[in-house]
Amino acid sequence: MNPSSIVLNKAQIRQKTERIAFEILENTFEEKKVYVAGIEGNGYLFAERLVEQLAQHSDQEIRLFKIMVDKDAPLNKEVTFSIPESELKSATVVLVDDVINSGRTMIYAVKKLLENPLKLLKVATLVNRTHRRFPVQADFVGVNISTTLKDNIIVELDKEEVAYIE
């Protein structure tokens, strides 16, 4: 990784996570219960961090769950949830992924969520790329970045905690 390719460092990731959590609270403060749906992988890890922040600053019941999507071939396997879909009736849901690159993974997750009678659906992401092939708009964004179509954004949420262009 080239230091000049860094989009967010560890401190910035933490700052953006906290800010997004506050934005979520501002938009859902009237709700008693909020579901946070993390897309399997880094999306779920980022969702866990958001839930930690939400829990520190709110009395709402925050319910975290995982969405499993085959990112390479989303039509080959059914999109599934780690909770019963019946729980989502009239629910407020925040769908979370670490990066919106093409928008493909997010659009298939949204499609599956919308098979349920939700009250509200919002999207949160740490890094939002402006070159997309699918019409996904994030409501809560850590950073917007313009890249070329050949660039790839990598987010590491383990010991490194960094987002960079590859």
Structure write-up:
- Helices cover 27% and strands 32% of the residues.
- It is an alpha/beta fold.
- It has one domain (3-165): Rossmann fold (3-Layer(aba) Sandwich), CATH 3.40.50.
- A six-stranded mixed β-sheet has the order 4-3-2-5-6-7, with helices on both faces. Strands 1-9-8 form a three-stranded antiparallel β-sheet.
- It is globular.
- The mean pLDDT is 87.
Give the helices and strands, then pairings.
Elements: E1 6-8, H1 10-28, E2 33-39, H2 42-57, E3 61-68, E4 80-81, E5 92-100, H3 104-113, E6 120-129, E7 140-145, E8 153-156, E9 162-165
Parallel strand pairs: 2-3, 2-5, 5-6, 6-7
Antiparallel strand pairs: 1-9, 3-4, 8-9
Helix pairs in contact: 1-2
Briefly characterize the structure.
With 166 residues, the chain is of the alpha/beta class.
